[in-house]
Write a structure and sequence with these properties.
Residues 1-23 are annotated as: Disordered. The protein has one helix at residues 29-32, and strands at residues 36-38, 41-44, 51-54, 60-63, 74-75. The protein has 86 residues and is mainly β. It has a domain at 30-77. A three-stranded antiparallel beta sheet has the order 1-2-5, with no helix packed on it. The chain has a two-stranded antiparallel sheet with strand order 3-4.
Amino acid sequence: MSDRLTHQDIQTVPSGVGSSAPSGPPLDLFSYFGIICENSIWYATKYPFGIEYFANNNKAKYFGGPEEFNGKKSKIVRYACRPSQR
């Protein structure tokens, strides 16, 4: 597994490319990340690239291999789509 995830990992294009860039295949995020709702709280249960988190210095860190943690539940604290950066 690489140190950073890229748009090639999920076969999409980076947002900086612009709206005329070809898009990858549709991605059902609920199935891909195993997103479930229990007691009004969203959880992820699939980890196709392991786990990414941000350290105190705001640098991304990774651990676990692809699908190593599948079946475990992680509370989704924040979920957002970033606008295209031009």
